Amino acid sequence: MNLTRLTAVLAGLLAALLLAPSARAQALDRAGLIANLCGNASAMGEAASVLTGLAMSGDAADRAFAVPLARAVIDRKLACDDAGAVLTENGLDAVTRQPRAAAGEPLTPVLSLKNRATYEQVDAALALRAAPEASQRAAALKTLERRPALIPEGLLEAAAAAEPDAGLKGEIETLAQTAALTAADPAARIRALARIADNPSRRALTQVSALTADPAYAASPEFRAAVDDATVRIGRGIAVGDVLATAYNGLSFASILFMAAIGLAIIFGLMGVINLAQGELIMIGAYVTWLVQQGLRVVAPSLLDWYLVLAIPVAFFVTAAIGIALEASLLRHLYKRPLMSLLATWAVSLFLMNLVRVVFGTQNLQFETPFYVTGGVPVIGDFIFTWNRMFAILFAVVTLALTWGLVRRTPFGLNIRAVTQNRDMAACIGIPTRRVDMMAFGLGSGLAGLAGLALSPIYSVNPQMGQNFIIDAFMVVVLGGVGTIAGTVVAALGIGQINVLIEPLWGAVAAKVIVLLMIIAFLQWRPEGLFAVKGRRK
Amino acid sequence: MSLTALLVDGLTVRFGSFRALDDLSLAIDYGEVRAIIGPNGAGKTTLLDVISGITRPKQGRVLFDGAIDLTGLSEAAIARAGLRRKFQKPSVFEGLSVRQHIAIGADVGFRARLDAPALEDRIGEVLETVGLVDHSNRLAGELSHGQKQWLEIGMVLASDPKVLMLDEPVAGLTDEETERTAALVRALKRPDRAIVVVEHDMDFVERIADRVTVLHEGRTLFEGSMAHVRADAAVVEVYLGR
C-alpha cells in the first residue's frame, strides 16, 4: 500500500514537473487529495480546487473516484486516520476503495463557512458530470443554478456536450449562458453574448436586455456595443423566426382546409349538392382513426405507434361507404332540388353529430402521439418545425397528388369531369351518370374521412368538431371556383395564410369575419371564383 | 336484325297543357338518312329527347331494333344500346381535349370495350372522318362553333352507333361548313345504321335526306322525299301560311 502511495506521489511529481503549469491535466494524486481533505482549511480549499478541476476535465475514472468525496466531507462521513481516510457511509477506504474500518480515533474534518459553499458547488459540479441518473444530474444543476457566479467557466459547456438527455442538455446550456453573462471577466461576458446571439429566442432577448441595467453597460463601451449588437441580432432572428412560424402555421392550416374542402369541391362540382354533412364525415374519419388506435391496443400493441398510417384505408373506406349510402338513400332523390338537398344534408349532419354524441359521449378523444408526430426541430427564433403539422402538410400533398392523378389520369376521372361539365351530353354518350355520381360522392366522403385522420394529431376530436370546418371548407370551394382542384389548392393556401396572419393581430373571430368579407368582395369581382371550369351549368 | 331501326308507336308528351307530341307514330329504317323538319314547337327536339331517354312519354313507346323498348331505360343504357345523339346547341365538354372527347365517346363507363391500341386506331379514324386531326390536343372550349359541331358528331360517332341522331347539325354554320357537314353526314350512311337529322335548313335537308318527315303540332303532317315535301299543299300551308 505504501508502495502504491509512493508511486502515485512520484508519478504526480513527475507529471507536475513535466506538464506544469497545467494542473488539470496531471494525473490525480489520490492519496494527496485525501490528505488535503483531512487537512486544515487551506488544504481543504486546495482539495476543492483539485476536485473542481476533475469535474471539468479530469478523466472519467478519476471523476468517478472523486464523486463521493465532496458529499462525504459535507455530510461529515469522512473519517480521517493515520492511514488516510475511510468513507463511513459504506466503510470503504477513501483512496483504494477497499473495505476497511477506520483505525484509532478517526477525525472528521469540519468545513469552514467559506469552504462549505465551495464544497456544495464542487459536489454539484461532480454530480452533474458523473452521476448515473438524469434526475441526480438535474438536482445538481439546480444547486449550481443558485450561485451562477461561482460556476467555473467551461464546466457547463463540457457537461452539456456530454449530456445524453436532451431536455437536461437544454437546461444546462441555458444556465451556461446565464453563468457566462454574469461572469467576472468582461471578455468572457462578451463571448457569451455572441454565443447567445447565435441562438435567438425571446428568452435570450430577455436575458440580454436585462444587461442594459448592468453597471458594466454604462462603464464599458465594448460591453455596451456587444449588448446592443446582440440585442439587434436576436431581434432580427426572432423576426425571421416569427415570419417562418406564421408561414408554417398558415401552410398547415391550409393543408387542413384543403383536405376538408377537396371532397366538398368534388361533390359540389359534380352534383351541385352542398353537402353540409361533410364536416361530420371529417369528424367520423377522426373517430374511425381513434377506433383503429383502440383496436390496435387490444389486438397488436406493438403496432400501436403506426395507427395513423394503418387507419388511412379504414378511415377512407368507412366514410366513403357512409357517403355512398347517403347518396343512394337520400340525395339521389333530391338532385333537382338544391334547397332540399341542402336541408337534407344539414339534417344528416345533425343526426350524425348526435349519434356520435350518444355512442361515444361529448368529451374530447384521447390520442396516442406516435414518435413521428412528436416534437420538432427548432429552426430559428421561436420557430419550431413541428412534426405533427408536417404530418398534416405531407398528408395533404400526397392526397392532392393522388386525387389529381385520379381525376386527370384515369377513365373514372374522365367520366367525373365529363359529367361535371355537361351532364346531359355525358349521359347521351353512355356514361352511367348515376354511378359516377355515387362513386364520386364516395370519393368526396372518403377524402373528408382522410381529413379527419390528418387533423387528429393537431386538433381536439369531439362530436362537434366538424362544425368548425364546414364553413371554412365551403368558403374554399366557392373562392376556388366550383369543382377545380387547382382552385381548391390556391384558395386553401390563401385563406389559410390570411387567417393565420390576421389572427395574432385581431383574434380568431375577427380573422374569420375579415376573410369572409374579403371573399365576398372578391366574388363581386369574379363570381366564378379563381379557377372556373368553362361549362354551362343548368 | 329487323329492317326497322326505330319504331315510334303512339307517343304522347305533355308539358302542362301543351301537347309537345300527340299520338305520334313513325318508323325509321336501317340504311336511311331521315330528316325531321317542322316549324318551331312542332315537337322535333322533344321526339329526340324521348328516344334518347331524357324525356319520359306520357303514353306510347319507342322500340329499337324491333325488340328493345327504350321508354323505361336510362339515358346511359340507351346510349349503350347503340343510340347516340348530338344536341342542338353544341354540347361539348369545354375543359377536355378533342382527343379525350373521342375517347369518351368510343370507350365509356367502367367497362372498357376497346384495348389501348384499338382505342387509338378508333380515335384516329374518327378524327380523320370529322376532319379534326390537326386539333386533337386542343381544348374543346377553344374550337370554333363549326368545329364544335363536328367534334360532337365525332364524339357520338366514335362508338359506332346503330342509330345516330343529329339535332340541327348545321345551325349557325357558314355555307362552306354546311357543305362539309352534308358530305360528312352522307359519308356516315351505312346499311346497318339509321341516321335521324332534325334541321331547319331545307337545302341541307334536300342534300342529305333519303326521306323527310314533317311534324306539325306533335303529329306527322307528311312523309316522303324532299321534292314531294316541297310540292305538298299542307306543308306549304304550315310553313308559309302564317
UniProtKB/TrEMBL annotation, chain A:
Q: How does it sit in the membrane?
A: Multi-pass membrane protein
Tell me the first and last residues of the signal peptide.
1-25
TM region positions: 253-274, 306-326, 338-360, 390-407, 440-461, 473-493, 505-525
Keyword flag DNA-binding: no
Q: Which Pfam families match?
A: BPD_transp_2
Keywords assigned: Amino-acid transport, Cell membrane, Membrane, Signal, Transmembrane, Transmembrane helix, Transport
Which InterPro entries did the record assign?
A: ABC_transp_permease, ABC_UrtB_bac, BCAA_transport_permease
Q: Where in the cell is it found?
A: Cell membrane
Protein's UniProt keywords contain Plastid: no
Q: Main location per UniProt? A: membrane
Family (UniProt) = Belongs to the binding-protein-dependent transport system permease family. LivHM subfamily.
Tell me what this protein is called. Answer: Urea transport system permease protein
Phylogenetic classification of the source organism: Bacteria, Pseudomonadati, Pseudomonadota, Alphaproteobacteria, Hyphomicrobiales
UniProtKB/TrEMBL annotation, chain B:
Q: What is this protein's name?
A: Urea transport system ATP-binding protein
What Gene3D superfamilies does this protein's entry cite?
Answer: P-loop containing nucleotide triphosphate hydrolases
- Please give the SUPFAM superfamilies that the UniProt record associates with this protein: P-loop containing nucleoside triphosphate hydrolases
Give GO terms: molecular function aspect only. ATP binding
Q: Which UniProt keywords apply?
A: ATP-binding, Nucleotide-binding, Transport
Q: Which domain of life is it from?
A: Bacteria
ABC transporter domain: residues covered: 6-242
Query: In the UniProt record, does the keyword Transport occur?
Result: yes
Q: Does the keyword Acetylation apply?
A: no
Q: Which InterPro entries match?
A: AAA+_ATPase, ABC_AA/LPS_Transport, ABC_transporter-like_ATP-bd, ABC_transptr_urea_ATP-bd_UrtD, P-loop_NTPase
